[in-house]
Amino acid sequence: MSAHEVDLVVIGTGPGGEALANAAASAGLDVVVVEKHLVGGECPYYGCIPTKMMVRGSDAVAEVRRVPQVAGEATITPAWSVVARRISEEATAGWDDTIGVERLEKVGATVHHGVGRLAGTGRVVVETPAGETLELTARRGVLVNPGTRPAVPPVEGLADTPYWTNRDAVRLTELPGSVAIVGGGPIGCELAQVFARFGVRVTVIQHGSRLLAADEPEASALVEKVFAEEGIRVLTDVELVRAAYADGAFVLTLDTGEQLTADKVMVAAGRVPNLDDLGLETVGLDPAARTLEVDEWLRAGEKLWAIGDVTGHGAFTHVAMYQQAIALRDILGQGGAPAQYHAVPHATFTDPEVGGVGMTEQAARDAGLRVRTGSTDLAASSRGFTYGPGGHGLIKVVEDADRGVLVGATAVGPAGGEILGFLAVAVHAEVPVPTLRSMIYAYPTFHRAIEAALADLS
User: Fold this and answer.
1) Which of 112, 193, 411, 458 has its CA 20 to 30 A from that of 397?
2) What is the CATH number of the domain that holds 202?
3) Are 309 and 292 a contacting pair, CB within 8 Å?
4) pTM (two decimals)
5) Integer angstrom CA distances of residue 29 from 17, 39, 105, 235, 284
6) Which domain does 350 fall in, by range?
7) Burial (CB count within 10 angstroms: exposed 0-12, middle 13-18, buried 19+), residue 94
8) Helix 48-70 and helix 186-197: axis angle, to 10°?
9) How far is residue 5 CA from its own chain's centroid?
10) What is the pLDDT of residues 171-180, one digit of tens each?
């Protein structure tokens, strides 16, 4: 075992960990980075970036199919090979992180591929693929950004089948005839629509009462309606109780007694935090915990910071990037504003897109607020009317009536995630509702519908 003393050790390089390591090294710290898989993490290789290339392809297919209703005649022959090539060549470089490693090394960081584990306060032990063991002592401390992995429900027989997760889906070079997707959250919904638009017969199995359960029910209902129109079968309030695979086909048994057959099964049933093999017990923390408790400076303990999905403030790249900037300032002793999470935005890139920020109506009521809500049909707006097919959506705002500010909002529609930007500012800055009502909203835009939703507050 070789021992080294450094300033900072970063375990896990999702976008937040990579950015912090880069900035800390650029600031002159002696930084060692430990990454089990690929520098950059889930987002650029298996999540945000490749899946949005998939969505872009499926949206282009859908738009061509809408041409006869708005502009003339057009036909398209979808080719998954084009999407697969873009993901491999443009997004992931064949799932090679050489560029990411070089980016860190260029600013002076040392990168080790291997397993990093805490071994006491400010100490890390690294096991490399070559069998080498390194012991690191960090003068400033350790930042952990371990991320999550796909959760696999304890369904009888499932573990013995060749099921997919999102990691398998983004590496596909050809598509099956049919797929059953277990889970109706953002990943399941985005990929269900992608596959369906490329000709795959898709069934979504959701144990809860609706898709996108973290969003407003009105958003879920609209997405389910669109899925039905596009031939996607959605089963809600059902449980998968048994899975079997033989002769190239899956047989899935539901708690209703129905049996489904599919060429492939994709599991999109949530995520598991990578905390169980991090050595948390050596610093007095629970390795079986679902999240790491952190303070407003992302401190999880003495000489220990944590960022990203495992902090429990939203499994989003933008949350990790927000947190890393705060943790970095604390590591460097620079101070500044602490973390706040009252206006965390998110977007699901179905068609229509579903964007949300802050609290849902139910969350606000559960928090004991006196709530007023307002909503409007995006398709009834001038822009929605002229847009034609695909112009459906809604805006919903949630007000704390006692303070007269928005505490949450939802934007569903074409570019719903972009419309959300306006609403995120309103929630984050706690702009008084009378001020929002007094603004001039450009006509005819989708975001002008926000004015109608504010007028509907009741």
Assistant:
1) 193
2) 3.50.50.60
3) no
4) 0.95
5) 15, 19, 13, 53, 27
6) 345-455
7) exposed
8) 50
9) 36
10) 999 999 999 9
